[in-house]
Predict the 3D structure of the following.
Amino acid sequence: MKSFHFSLLSAALFFSAAAAAATTYGDSSEAVDFIRTSCNATLYPELCYTSLSAYANTVQQSPGHLARVAIAISLSRARHMASYVANLSRQADYGAAPRTASALHDCFSTFGDAIDQIRGSLKQMRQLRADESFRFQMSNVQTWMSAALTNEETCTDGFEDVADGAVKSEVCDRAENVKKLTSNALALVNCYVNKETNSTETP
């Protein structure tokens, strides 16, 4: 009899675990689909999806969470870029061509500004309030993310007069990737604002 009850208990635990796993898988699958669909609104949908799909469990099907994660990823990549350029800039002070050294210094400076703006955007997203201040807060995020994108573009613009070479190519390629991530984050922020604005205006 004890063996029979143990078997029933084991079976119950097994099916409960299977049901939980199926629910988690289903929720995760829906979240991944949500990210894929949302990324279609960006300029770089494939990069958007590959950079965000790993965070499906965090995002679920929330446009706000998706925008926040995208901003966080943009901030992380911008920080890595600034660190990379800082190292190159220190090396350039010892023998690099003056234009290259100047472009690297300027790039580091503009990425520093971009980091401050993206960090401010992420902080604002974490402090959102569901009241009349929402639009003001999101307007700040849109302004700062747009300014960050401009600063990142300024970095690559500074290399236009620099002779082609490994440093120029590597910096511009890396900066381009960060720009795309920031652009995607801004697009997802805009989608979130539009969704929330439309939902509050619907009678």
Notes: DSSP finds seven helices and no strands in the chain. Residues 1-26 have pLDDT under 50 and may be disordered.
